[in-house]
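Hi P.,

Sorry for the delay on this. The queue was packed all week, but I finally got your sequence through. Input first:
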Amino acid sequence: MSVYSLPATDITEIKAEDPQATFAYISPVLDHIFLAPATTDANGKTILPSLDFKVHSAVYTLIYNTTTTVMATNSKALYELLSAHLEETVKKIGKSIDEKVDNTKEPTAGEQLVSGYLAAWDRFDKNATYIDRLTAYLNRHWVKREEDEGRGAKLVLTTWGYPADGVTKELAEMCSKASSGNDVLVPTRPLALRNWRMNVVEKLKMESVDAYLKTLGAAEQEKVAEELRKSFWTAGVEPTKPQIIALEQFLPKAPEAPKPEVAEKVPEAAATAEPVAEASSSS
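Then the structure:
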């Protein structure tokens, strides 16, 4: 059996009231999704690891069974196991990015770092969205209830461009949750993104990124910097954080808002003076 082999689809022996057994089944599935090597088809297209319908259904059913039991502690235990596993998974991804970088050479190191980061991010973001759907019942039956009772993230949507910059409320909420601290309860996708922010983005050597971007032409600079900025933002990196600020020099400045015309100020004395009657001409 390889490191990233998927489990059998017979889950009849796994009891709903046993979150540890449930997660023992789920964890190799997560490893397959996030960490198993990609393959290449006959046309050279990269094929990312995926789940067949039977495995997907088995995981979905196990999560449903665990999270719809009377005991809320089962859902809490499953969430904590998932959270810890995601953290370790992201650390492994971050390490794999670093291992492909030759830090003795610049700007080569920066190019390797940026290309490795963006490729890893693209896969991770897609998989974070996928497992959010896979764990829908955990989000719906436990996380949402905990949030409704005040134990979720404190949302500041204006930081993420809602509503002023046209960002949807749903997206602003997700980014705000991803920006929360490690001890805050959030749904699965922002949980995964928060781990990416804390264990990958915040540890990026931005001086290497800067050195590489400065070797590019203006158009390519802007394209790559915007891809990085978008990934940072999605993962909950606030606009005032150094990773975002470091990219600003490579991005077009937002146009200044037009200044309102100011009416000429009337002197106070003139504004309050009584009108003077015209003198009548003497005959």
